[in-house]
Specification:
Distance between the termini: 51 Å
Structural class: mainly beta
Oligomer: single chain
Strand content: 35-45%
Order of helices and strands: EEHEEEEEEEEE
Number of strands: 11
Low-confidence stretches: none
Strand order of the largest sheet: 3-4-5-7-6
Radius of gyration: 18 Å
Length: about 170
């Protein structure tokens, strides 16, 4: 089956079989997963045709958000990406990381799933993009570190993370 995103762009291929014995491994993964050639985040977010598109990708960027044992957001000069990981190693906003993971189409867009990361240094945070509240949903800014100016309509404090509802303007 050909997987498509909501704009009908191909994002991957799915193969369904009756039995696990029907699958034959033609190429073993590298012994060191971090030895695969790195790509930019914008390349990782784009369509990579099979067979390469079915393999892990490796990116390098700066952590802009973290939820230990769940996900990271990583950004380079070309964009940002969500990284789904069970790894709970210490990582902080501003750490430079190398990440390997499988490309996956989620509700919010392309992310890397079943990912592993390694902290390789400390870096300056990427430049903030200043937005009005009405510009937040622009897809160009997806997964990027932004600064939003707006008026708070209401806020909630759920157990996982605070949520704000904003509108354009001040007072």
């Amino acid at each position: 089956l050909l997987n498509l995103d909501r704009l009908q762009n191909p994002t991957g291929v799915e193969l369904r079989v009756q039995r696990l014995q029907d699958i034959h491994v033609l190429q073993d993964p590298p012994a060191d997963a971090f030895s695969i050639h790195p790509v930019s985040i914008s390349q990782a977010r784009g369509f990579i045709p099979p067979p390469e598109g079915n393999h892990r990708v490796r990116i390098r960027g700066i952590v802009t958000f973290r939820s230990p044992g769940r996900e990271l957001y990583v950004q380079d000069s070309g964009g940002g990406i969500c990284v789904k990981t069970d790894q709970a190693d210490p990582v902080e906003t501003g750490d430079e990381v190398e990440v390997i993971g499988f490309r996956s189409v989620e509700e919010t867009g392309i992310c890397l799933r079943s990912a592993e990361f390694s902290v390789v240094g400390k870096a300056k945070s990427p430049p903030l993009i200043s937005l009005r509240a009405s510009e937040v949903l622009n897809l160009e800014n997806r997964d990027r570190l932004v600064r939003v100016e707006g008026r708070v309509l209401h806020d909630t404090q759920p157990a996982a993370a605070p949520e704000l509802a904003l509108t354009d303007g001040r007072d």
